[in-house]
Amino acid sequence: GAGVSQSPSNKVTEKGKDVELRCDPISGHTALYWYRQSLGQGLEFLIYFQGNSAPDKSGLPSDRFSAERTGGSVSTLTIQRTQQEDSAVYLCASSFASSTDTQYFGPGTRLTVL
Amino acid sequence: GEDVEQSLFLSVREGDSSVINCTYTDSSSTYLYWYKQEPGAGLQLLTYIFSNMDMKQDQRLTVLLNKKDKHLSLRIADTQTGDSAIYFCAEIGQAGTALIFGKGTTLSVSS
Q1: Using an 8 Å Cβ cutoff, are A45 and A105 in contact?
Q2: DSSP classification of residue B82
């Protein structure tokens, strides 16, 4: 596609439920990133995928967060047993080959945990 | 630790120049970036500068880099109301994977 797409654009869930957020990177981009944007913390890195290498999960805030990338393309970020502090905008980005290539961002998924 | 600092707000009048400043800590950063975020939208790459450059100009945008002081600035000439947005400065962190962002500068342009 022309740009990074994410779905859903908005998600409202109840505390304790699991959620899945989807990211479709730019075609041909091998690197994919998840970030979180919240009022108190600004923009934080969550996880990075590069080709078939093991992902860099160093930014995941707890073991309730996980992500996978199937077939080197689409990625799903899963948050289990959501908490109110998980409320944020989750942004996905992709770049051509590595992290030193420019990262292009999707529109984000706004997650609200009630 | 790694940190990127920006002033939080800037208010200018239409037609004036805007200068948004940023300081960063990682001297090994190869690229430094400016992103723009309009209300309810994702991050749009505005411009970037390679660390061996002092200046980059792109239409109304001028980026200045002072590596000695680890200071980056974005100048917007002839600022328009459509430039009102949040501007983020970012560097590649030491791990070489993630972007480290500043908290963002909210630019307000009045007519």
Answers
A1: no
A2: G
Three-state secondary-structure class, residue A85 = helix
Which of B7, B3, B19, B8 has the alpha carbon at shortest distance from B77?
A: B19
- Minimal Cα–Cα distance from B42 to chain A, Å? 4
Q: List all residues 6 or more positions away from B60 whose beta carbon is below 8 Å from its beta carbon.
A: B76, B77, B78
Is the CB of A42 less than 8 angstroms away from the CB of B30? Answer: no
Residue ranges of chain A whose CB lies within 8 Å of a chain B CB = 4, 33, 35, 42-43, 45, 48, 50, 56, 58-59, 91, 93, 99-100, 102-108
Name residue A81's amino acid: R
> How does pLDDT run across A15-57, given as a tens digit for each residue?
999 999 999 999 999 999 999 999 877 899 999 999 888 899 9
pLDDT in tens, B11-55: 999 999 999 999 998 777 778 999 999 987 889 999 999 888 899
Type of residue at A61: P
